[in-house]
Specification:
Oligomer: heterodimer
Strand order of the largest sheet of chain A: 6-7-5-8-4-3-10-1-11
Protein name (chain B): DevA family ABC transporter ATP-binding protein
Domain ABC transporter (chain B): 5-230
Distance between the termini of chain B: 18 Å
Strand order of the largest sheet of chain B: 6-7-8-3-9-10
Helix content of chain A: 40-55%
Structural class of chain A: alpha+beta
Number of helices of chain B: 6
Organism (chain B): Gloeocapsopsis crepidinum LEGE 06123
Number of helices of chain A: 15
Keywords (chain B): ATP-binding, Nucleotide-binding, Transport
Order of helices and strands of chain A: HHHEEHEEHHEHEEEHEEHEHHHHHH
GO molecular function (chain B): ATP binding
Chain lengths: 391, 231
């Protein structure tokens, strides 16, 4: 190891000198790699935003265990199960509270544009807070008034004026069917691919909005476990205690269930995955072009080095040195640009698109693999650097 | 006197099957250590082929080819690469690396020899450049040098590691007569100082006087193997 480092110290950094000598070519190469990186970041960002946005409501629920119908597909298609199961759940040791959550989509009139829009309505008893959102829990009293709702600040669509109005303390009204709804307060959750906006209402208001739903059929059951109990064990106890017509999942399992739906049942995961692969391939092609041009431009020098006694593996290491330098240098603008683009996309789509450390590392690894792969293809040209044929 | 190069009954062919063509016929040549030998002959006579065989750039096919005590006939590519480390090769074109300064180019000639520490590499490279009269130009890139200067850097690169054998393929072809003369004199002086053997292929009649011996090659056969009339 020490010997290797000493070798490195005495070695002329040929790859770096070659790259930095041709500044123009280096800039073009870095722009290409940054471009591929930006594409990958955007694809992965959108993909992650999809999964994130669709579990955002679920993650805000204050529950350790979630009961749902075996027919449930995702948050927008939950089906219902009998409220009796929630009462029965209270018999199981370790269960602290069991709260009913009613969820359905409704077409309302946008208070600002007066055009129809679909929103997701979340109904629960104001006495039993169903969400871990301090903003919502402070305004539970407002929900006790009939036909009064809390509205999502992160909603997708033209709601800015209406939100500003509520923000100033005024109430805004709008219509659903023939009912008038009052927006009394705001909270922040954000839009998802499945729903443009969320409304929080009391269970009574919910039942009034959906006359066909009845109080005894709930969408989700939120169970909190007493401190000192293991949610997993309580979930297992519930599973054996409750009949087959209800499914018991820990919150973590439920989030996976929700994500899994979007991964498999929707084409979106595939689309963005494919997009990432395409960006990767584009990157390979760009870096290959740069490296093979570079090898061609220096083929005589390489042949000379071979004649001087440098081995083929030395020349390979030069090409790979260039590839790795390109990968790391190209990654810097490639990782900074998406920060701005994420902010732009987040504003435009109200989706939670943001940079994560794990994604940055993942793309960095992809970039290194991409450059190494291109380097490996480009080194095939080295074989033509035969000093005997050259002179 | 010790023998640096010993070639016996060397035959060499290019091509495969029906296209197979013999380019070297029964070459016999011995060069003593410290000798300067010039090889002349028309284009296509096989001079460069013989030089590349001796230099270990190609693998010899039949006969015997001993260079610096190593048999190169039928040697593996690895062995040839190893052997090349002990030669200094000077080409018709200077073949300097355009992204490296003259100092870095000369240092590349030393980097192969792992026993030399980095500080000594630099000192030796600078001393070598001073010897070829380019001590002021260590940080120039080849683009900023004249043809003669570039060829002198190439000579410095070939000689900096004190090789026991220097092979030169028309080193003066691209130079005017004065620079050509300078380059050859330089090679002669440095070689005599370092005590190395030189085999020089050339068309250039103006430089024949530096040779201890001149051999003439024609149609793949060594025609004349005589002591230099001048030397």
């Amino acid at each position: 190891m020490i010997g290797f480092i000493q070798q490195l110290q005495r070695r002329t950094p040929l790859g770096w000198l070659q790259l930095s000598h041709e500044k123009g070519r280096l800039l073009v190469a870095l722009a290409g790699i940054a471009f591929a990186d930006v594409l990958m970041f955007m694809q992965l960002g959108f993909q992650n935003a999809l999964y994130d946005s669709n579990t955002r409501v679920s993650r805000a629920m204050s529950a350790d265990i979630i009961l749902l119908s075996p027919k449930a597909l995702n948050l927008q298609n939950l089906s219902t199960f009998s409220r009796r199961r929630l009462f029965q759940a209270k018999d199981v040791p370790g269960v602290q509270t069991s709260t009913a959550l009613y969820i359905n989509s409704i077409t309302w009139r946008n208070p600002q544009t007066r055009l129809n829009a679909t929103v997701q309505v979340l109904g629960f008893a104001p006495d039993e807070p169903a969400f871990d959102l301090p903003e919502v829990n402070q305004q539970l009293d407002k929900l006790k008034l009939p036909d009064t709702v809390l509205f999502d600040r992160g909603a997708r669509g033209q709601y800015a004026e209406a939100i500003a109005q509520v923000e100033q303390g005024k109430t805004t009204t709008t219509e659903v069917d023939r009912r008038t709804l009052t927006i009394a307060g705001l909270f922040s959750l954000g839009a998802s691919f499945g729903a443009d906006a969320n409304l929080m209402v009391s269970d009574q208001t919910f039942l009034r909005l959906f006359p066909r739903r009845d109080a005894a059929s709930v969408s989700l059951g939120l169970i909190q476990v007493k401190s000192g109990y293991n949610p997993q064990q309580v979930a297992a106890a519930l599973e054996s205690h409750l009949p087959e017509d209800v499914r018991v999942l820990t919150t973590q399992e439920y989030l996976q269930f929700e994500e899994n739906y979007w991964r498999t049942a929707s084409p979106i995961g595939f689309v963005f995955g494919l997009g990432t692969v395409m960006a990767f391939v584009v990157g390979v092609v760009i870096v290959y072009q740069v490296l093979s041009t570079d090898v061609n431009a220096h083929i005589k020098e390489y042949a000379t080095f071979k004649a001087m006694g440098y081995s083929n593996s030395y020349l390979l290491s030069v090409v790979f040195e260039e590839a790795i330098i390109l990968a790391f240098l190209g990654f810097i603008p490639g990782a900074i640009l998406p920060l701005g683009l994420y902010a732009l996309a987040a504003n435009a789509t109200a989706l939670p698109i943001y940079m994560t450390a794990s994604r940055a590392v993942f793309v960095l690894v992809l970039t290194v693999v991409m450059c190494a792969l291109s380097g490996a293809i480009a080194t095939r040209k080295l074989q033509s650097a035969d000093p005997a044929d050259m002179f | 006197m010790a023998i640096a190069i010993s070639v016996q009954d060397l035959n060499h062919y290019f091509g495969q099957g029906q296209l197979r063509k013999q380019v070297l016929f029964d070459i016999n040549l011995e060069i003593n250590t410290g000798e300067i030998v010039i090889m002349t002959g028309p284009s296509g006579s096989g001079k460069t082929t013989l030089l590349t065989l001796i230099g270990g750039l190609r693998s010899a096919q039949s006969g015997s080819l001993q260079v610096l005590g190593q048999e190169l006939c039928g040697a593996t590519p690895q062995k040839l690469t190893q052997a090349r480390k002990h030669h200094g090769y000077i080409f018709q074109a200077h073949n300097l690396h355009s992204s490296l300064t003259t100092l870095q180019n000369v240092k590349m000639g030393l980097e192969l020899h792992r026993e030399i520490p980095p500080t000594e590499m630099k000192a030796r490279a600078i001393r070598m450049l001073e010897q070829v009269g380019l001590g002021e130009r260590t940080n120039y890139y080849p683009d900023g040098l004249s043809g003669g200067q570039k060829q002198r850097v190439a000579i410095a690169r070939a000689l900096v590691s004190h090789p026991k054998l220097v092979l030169a393929d028309e080193p003066t072809a691209a130079l005017d007569s004065k620079s050509g003369r300078d380059v050859v004199n330089l090679m002669q002086t440095l070689a005599k100082e370092q005590g190395c053997t030189i085999l020089l292929v050339t068309h250039d009649n103006r430089i024949l006087d530096v040779a201890d011996r001149i051999v003439h090659m024609e149609d793949g056969v060594l025609k004349r193997n005589t002591a230099s009339p001048v030397g």
